[in-house]
Amino acid sequence: MTINNIAYIDLQAQWTTEKKDLLKIIDNVMSSGQFVGGKYVDQFEKKIAKFCNVKYAVSLNSGTDALTVALHCAGVKKGDEVITAPNSFISSASVIAHLGAKPVFADVLEDQNIDPEEIEKVITKKTKAIIPVHLTGRICEMKKINKIAKRKNIVVIEDAAQAIGSKYYNKMSGSIGHIGCFSTHPLKNLNASGDGGFITTNNALYAKRIKKLCNLGIINRNIVEEFGYVSRLDNLQAAILLYRLSKMKDVIRKRRNNVDFYMKNLDKNHVFYPKEKKYQFNTYHTFVIQVRERDKLRNYLKKKGIGTAIHYPIPIHLQPAAKKLKYNKNSFPVTEKQSKEILTLPVHQFLSLKQIKFITDTINEYFKQ
Predict the structure, then answer these.
(1) Cβ atoms within 10 A of the Cβ of 295, count?
(2) Terminus-to-terminus CA distance in the chain, angstroms?
(3) Distance between CA atoms of 157 and 155, rounded to whole angstroms?
């Protein structure tokens, strides 16, 4: 990856730096003959629980399944309502619909995270759960959300898919609500070489049931206590995640350093980015700026060899799949305005300072024209 060819994400660079170690890990797993379950799954669950500062962690095969199982565990069923943000990845809403419940959206703040005041406005007698999405690696205003949920007796399920290692008033993501849901998709800061995920909680009853639900509801080889799912993290992915978990602090440090350079040097007259508050520690799964003429800027960067992304150009409530929910344009003005202005810049840990400077200078040059 050269200064004139900067990828938005660089998984090839990760493989190059880890190849020697990972080939040994892969050989160990394949030689063991343990593929579904195994010692690496057990070790990963213990270490990730410690990392997230929770009592229990259960691994499974995706962040989407983590949300599904968490909602199931919370008792969400047909006819219930679950509140979440309309500017997330589609999983946050689709899991609600799959259980026969209704996704109910609340608009967001300028930092792209769900607005607690908007949550309170849409709570009804049917509201069973709230899914705050810690978008970009920034934790939502959980104090306010938890206060509302406690008063209304509503379960809070953190969608922390993008926020592994993030903190809020020194509390780790996944430890603040009743249940935390994480993804270890290849593009995440803690990434498997394929799909994967895990659930965190401090509730022993939740943990026990989640473990059972992820394995078809089986309590032993002959007895199925309830109908569950086949949603298990395989031993190979667990071994890879264990290895990469040992590198997490360095990954987060490098990403935060990259963002620090952006924030100090981007043209603040034309580029908006939500600053980190004193009680936040953001891990920057993505670094998202908000600019006018977003598409023109993106094309300009592309011509200069700089890869970017948009997370996400079409809000969930405006997707064809959401027509039955009967939302329309202008239902969520902040979300819709942001969807036209958000642009995700490269922030991964393999970027050099020279590359970060080139990206910053190129953006600033665009606005000087």
Answers:
(1) 13
(2) 27
(3) 6
Domains and CATH numbers, the chain: 11-245 (3.40.640.10), 248-368 (3.90.1150.10)
- What are the DSSP calls for 6-46, one per residue? B-S--HHHHHHHHHHHHHHHHHHHHHHT--BS-HHHHHHHH
Calpha distance 114→332 (Å, rounded): 11
Coil, strand or helix at 199: strand
In this structure, the strands spanning 56-60 and 197-201 are antiparallel
Distance between alpha carbon 278 and the CA centroid of its chain, in Å?
22
Q: Cα–Cα distances in Å, from 52 out to 90, 214, 298?
A: 25, 20, 36
Per-residue pLDDT of the chain (369 residues; tens, 9 = 90+): 566 789 999 999 999 999 999 999 999 999 999 999 899 999 999 999 999 999 999 999 999 999 999 999 999 999 999 999 999 999 999 999 999 999 999 999 999 999 999 999 999 999 999 999 999 999 999 999 999 999 999 999 999 999 999 999 999 999 999 999 999 999 999 999 999 999 999 999 999 999 999 999 998 889 999 999 999 999 999 999 999 999 999 999 999 999 999 999 999 999 999 999 999 999 999 999 999 999 999 999 999 999 999 999 999 999 999 999 999 999 999 999 999 999 999 999 999 999 999 999 999 999 998
**Two tokens, residue 33:** 């003959």
